[in-house]
């Protein structure tokens, strides 16, 4: 597409799809132009006409069909001229594969002419060498431009040939159109000029174009201005959507921070709030996408009309410009008069309502409020304001809160809590937990620690000592905002939804190193997979080895790999092992014999490998799509997650499969976790604040379909439901995680996590119904 304000070249018009019909996808034949300035073959339009109307296939505008049929639509002389030039470059009579001379048969010779070596641009004839020499020597043709035929076919003389083209009169073959009848606005040749337009004022084509070009250029400038307004509206819509996402991230982080100190039995409300936040953001994004599609559609229609008008004015001959002048002017006026910038929908930014301190299990400690952001407030957003449409009292409270360095507690009537009581109130609300109470071991999260041996939180101490009747004395209403929020919140001890009893819980099993006496370098684990009963296979890329370990940490030997290979991702199949190394996919037997290898795309640094649940096929991520190979090395299927519309938009760095046959991958280009079925249809996708701004890491799936996602930068493993919705934290730094790298699920019950230092932790996944 030609950019706004620039003039297209003749080479672009001839080499692009401008001369192709968008219906039959072939070169235009008898081109007819609709009032919306889109051009199609006459026969193709006849097939679309129904009930006296037809819809433009590109802009979907309904156009009435003239009473005489589609043949009465305006003939596009501009396109016809370009088509004549294209046909002249590629056509001609052929003899033994060479073009023949057009003059030799006229000189009395039998049969066809000799082989052509030149072309007259004025006569539009191919000439042999003898006729070309004679053509230059006659009185009538000595001024004609005769050029080399090879150069002409190569396009060297397209500009000169275009300048010498003349539009032919459809009523008088052989006569060029030379005049414009002003009352009739009709193009005329010399024969047409005599009758019935003899008494009508007529202008030569060049003079008529000079008179009418300024009007068209003024209309074109108006449409260019409307295009600028559309682009500005689209940019504003995207900025509003970006602000919404940033605020959602901030609010999600606030939810994480505030929820850390709250009593664990009440933390299920946190997930309700995050679910409400995700639903609001998804609904707002859907509405924004619809508005963006509308804006882009209008922009595409206006840009297409402007590009067509600009092509005609830049490349068209006088007769062609005048023949299309009425249609272009009508279309440009129509585009100018239509409403261009629909008002943006109100953007409701979520705000966290924090009400801690109540011990009633039915109390809502967290909630969301939504405030409409005005244009003035949106300008203040970048200056550090997070309040949206705050009242003066709220701004004052926020300023006081910022000076205190955290959340400003308030009493029921809105007055600030006395300074000497603020520390105690913060502990009661769970906003600040003493350091000595936060230093918990991994066993605190429900692993194997007896209840009487676990340190109590301040809320638990207060709940144990406060009688039911005295609960109202402790009841306060807290409101405030965090003015500065860290991107990496403090790791919460244990699973956020453990109190709800709905999700699996980790039970620490064992930990062991993977460095063996023969290793020359520190291990760099890039792949893990189950290997037989209660065994795992470890891909050590640094030492170029596939190591076998039991779940208890016993070393079982190694699977030999081809010399020079550094295994990256690994998967175990029925009696074979598949792994990626560089830009190749290998399938080897357990004793190291190579059964086959396949070359992969060089555009991806590493390729994730996963075994299908059946065990007889292997899936590998290649440049945004997934390829599945059978045991013989044949490509069984290939798909792009989300379909061809997402071609080039995804980069699956980690990949696994679920027992249900779905694919789960970490998409670094979209910064999301995507779940799709065996046909590539996306079932679910998560890219919300639960990722903490990190790129998603390794993924594993248990026997019930729960997804375990590694977040290396914040030392976490989070859990998602089978459709990709975030449920909470599963492992944190309190479980001994230090930059987790790769995970795998063994027997659907044991989660194996490798760290950056080469250590492996094994956790038993305890299901809620066990």
From TrEMBL:
Pathway: Protein modification; protein ubiquitination. One of its GO terms (cellular component) is nucleoplasm. It catalyses: S-ubiquitinyl-[E2 ubiquitin-conjugating enzyme]-L-cysteine + [acceptor protein]-L-lysine = [E2 ubiquitin-conjugating enzyme]-L-cysteine + N(6)-ubiquitinyl-[acceptor protein]-L-lysine. It is found in: Cytoplasm. The keyword DNA repair does not apply. Residues 392-403, 434-443 have a biased composition (Basic and acidic residues). SUPFAM superfamilies: B-box zinc-binding domain, NHL repeat, RING/U-box. Keywords: Antiviral defense, Coiled coil, Cytoplasm, Immunity, Innate immunity, Metal-binding, Phosphoprotein, Repeat, Transferase, Ubl conjugation pathway, Zinc, Zinc-finger. Its main location: cytoplasm. Its EC number is 2.3.2.27. Residues 21-60 form the RING-type domain. It holds the Pfam family zf-B_box. Residues 471-484 have a biased composition (Basic residues). GO terms for biological process: defense response to virus; innate immune response; positive regulation of type I interferon-mediated signaling pathway; protein monoubiquitination; regulation of type I interferon production. Belongs to the TRIM/RBCC family. This is E3 ubiquitin-protein ligase TRIM56. It comes from Suricata suricatta (Meerkat).
